[in-house]
């Protein structure tokens, strides 16, 4: 029976959050937009995902290989014989890309690695839940499930599945949270420069081809 020990490389979440924060602030309007809308494009989400890649897993995998060997007790008739086997298996997730269409949001990528030194590749995909929290004024994107790795290799002529039931990017990508809080801007007045804030309420989220759009009631305070 196969068993494995797993080691995950610490994912640079703080670096990715810093990247997303800079990107989201770069998208934020510096003055009241004509239609009070904020758009988050696929490219922004892809840059965030790039900051936390590669997502890697390493396992030491122990299993039994059954091979046919001549059995002297059965007049040389080939008989299945179990052979204990142990080797390293790796998985690395790269190329994560968000796809936004009016009906849904999804994320896809590639997994590649080795099992006992033999290479494999696999495509990955998951739907993404998108929501706006009115209390914290944040846009949150969260993959709804693990991404199944289906890579296979041949060891001693036997087809073996990569020992990863799934590679979940949820622990990393669940951190995608775009602040929709007040945006400060400066206005010149007869009394000198004055700092004001653009505040949005009653957020309305909609999906479009290639981007998310958030409309809201905006006012200056």
Description:
This protein has a seven-stranded antiparallel sheet. Strands 2-13-12-11 form a four-stranded antiparallel sheet. A two-stranded antiparallel ribbon has the order 8-9. Helix 1 (13-27) runs antiparallel to helix 2. Strand 5 and strand 6 form a beta hairpin. It is mostly beta strands. It has three helices and 13 strands, in the order E-H-E-H-E-E-E-E-E-E-E-H-E-E-E-E. It has one domain: Super Roll (Bactericidal permeability-increasing protein, domain 1). It has helices at residues 13-27, 42-51, 170-173, and strands spanning 3-8, 37-41, 55-71, 77-101, 104-115, 118-133, 138-143, 152-155, 158-161, 177-179, 183-189, 192-208, 211-220. Residues 1-6 and 9-34 have low confidence and may be disordered.
SSE layout and pairings?
Blueprint (H helix, E strand, L loop, with lengths): L2 E6 L4 H15 L9 E5 H10 L3 E17 L5 E25 L2 E12 L2 E16 L4 E6 L8 E4 L2 E4 L8 H4 L3 E3 L3 E7 L2 E17 L2 E10 L1
Antiparallel strand pairs: 1-3, 2-13, 3-4, 4-5, 5-6, 6-7, 7-10, 8-9, 11-12, 12-13
Helix pairs in contact: 1-2
């Amino acid at each position: 029976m196969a068993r494995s020990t797993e080691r995950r490389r610490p994912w640079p979440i703080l670096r990715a959050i810093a990247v997303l924060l800079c990107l989201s602030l770069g998208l934020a309007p510096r003055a009241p937009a004509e239609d009070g809308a904020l758009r988050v494009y696929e490219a922004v989400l892809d840059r965030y995902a790039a900051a936390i890649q590669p997502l890697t897993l390493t396992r030491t995998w122990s299993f039994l290989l059954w091979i046919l060997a001549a059995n002297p007790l059965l007049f040389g008739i080939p008989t299945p014989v179990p052979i204990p086997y142990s080797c390293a298996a790796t998985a690395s997730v790269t190329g994560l890309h968000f796809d936004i269409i009016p009906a849904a949001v999804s994320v896809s990528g590639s997994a590649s690695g080795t099992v006992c030194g033999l290479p494999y590749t696999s495509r990955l995909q998951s739907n993404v839940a998108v929501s706006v929290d009115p209390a914290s004024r944040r846009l949150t994107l969260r993959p709804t499930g693990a991404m199944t790795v289906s890579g296979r290799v041949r060891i001693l002529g036997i087809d073996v599945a990569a020992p990863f039931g799934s590679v979940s990017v949820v622990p990393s990508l669940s951190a995608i949270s775009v602040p929709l809080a007040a945006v400060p801007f400066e206005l010149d007045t007869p009394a000198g420069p004055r700092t004001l804030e653009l505040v949005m309420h009653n957020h309305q989220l909609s999906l479009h081809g290639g981007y998310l759009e958030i409309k809201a009631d905006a006012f200056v305070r």
